[in-house]
Amino acid sequence: MILKHAVKWIRPFFSVVLLFSVLLTSHSVAGATGLMQPATSANLKGIDVSHWQGTIDWNQVKNSGIAFAYAKVSQGTTYTDPMFSTNLQGARAAGLPFGAYHYASPSAPYNPDQAKAEAQYFVDVMKNEGMGDFGDIMPVLDLEQPAATGTLTSDEIASWARVFTDTVKSLTNRQVMVYTGDWFVEQYNDFGGKLSDLPVWIAAWTRYGNTQPPAVGGWTQWTAWQYSDQGSVPGVSGYVDLDYGPTSIDALRGYLTNAPSVPAVPSNFTANPTANSVQVSWSPSANASSYQLQRNGNIVYQGTATIFTDTGLLENTTYSYTLTAVNDQGQSSPVNLPVTTQATAQTVTNVIADKSQYNSGNYAKLITTAKDGNGNPLSGATVALTVKNPRGSITSVTGKTDTNGTFTYNYFISKNLRGTFNVTVTTTMANYHSSSASTTFSSVK
Description:
Belongs to the glycosyl hydrolase 25 family. Residues 262-347 form the Fibronectin type-III domain. By secondary structure, the chain is an alpha/beta fold. The chain has seven helices and 26 strands. The protein has helices at 7-24, 58-63, 84-93, 112-128, 154-172, 182-187, 250-253, and strands at 45-49, 68-75, 79-80, 98-103, 140-142, 177-181, 200-203, 224-231, 240-244, 267-273, 277-283, 290-295, 298-303, 307-311, 318-327, 330-331, 335-340, 345-353, 357-358, 363-372, 382-388, 394-400, 406-412, 419-428, 432-433, 435-443. The strands form five sheets. An eight-stranded mixed β-barrel has the order 1-2-4-5-6-7-8-9. Strands 12, 13, 15, 16 and 17 form a five-stranded antiparallel β-sheet that branches. The N and C termini lie far apart (95 Å).
């Protein structure tokens, strides 16, 4: 998340600032006296992204072993990341715990109302972009940009961050984690240790020799550690930030005391398909206020009902349905159900004349039979029959098959009309493909 174009000049400049700070204050840099804990194989792995990563294949990301993800949602009071909604839907469809961060834009002179306004904007954008539960994992304040104009003191930066986090907490009933870099904390004299009660997501990249993050800002333990800004993960094009998290995803949730828990996973998720529709149903989940149903990664239903019929589908096609239960505190783990629609049955049509030649002035008996693909008679099928006589005149009739799947039509042959008669017949029936057949007969007198 740290500004890439700033890295080249930030560190030399800040080394001068740090030296000056040490000369003026008895407070020593914590990074010089201790380290935070190392990461182990038990720590969850995560990534953080923004629009710079473009379109992401979140299924590949999850399948690679990534256990959580954060995405930029907002900055200041006017900017919304254009990829946030897409990232949110993709990550959740893949079943990956997902959270949002706000890129802070403090400015001098210090104004707490600015921090409140950015906090309100952050919360509003989360709601407007489809994250009304404020994330599966706790919201984050990205604090890495020096004052846009003028200069803020370390106390003012800490106060700005405190106003922001307190405002977000009051609006969401969620803890707020602070993302920042060790260099930024040191620039602002460790924030005077005034933010150390908040969970920290520390940026300290291993390519700069950080095998463990330095203990800065009064923090001695990280909740998350961004250890690389040049990572590679399947499903993401180019570089992506890599992170360690806690050993349990619950430690990232950030629900405050007495907050209701996320909903239970929906149970008894079943489907009843037809050729062109699927009716899905499920049992109510504890603590759920609504449900979200996706088909092949696209939302097809959001609401409180526990039954839904998805229509307009292709026959004999497999669809993947994903169901989650939702409340203000987040959403359940998804439950997936592949469903294949039925193949529409075929009609099998046959038509005969009960003898090949007729005397003019007689009736020709034309017998149509309709069966399904398994050879069973189709009762009630609609039969459309036409007869074209040797002079080109056409007779058309319609009827229904009887319980034996048979429709009989007696066609009168005019006297002295000789030659070949062409018969065509088509049968149709609901939920069956239509079929056709043809035959000929002749008159001899």
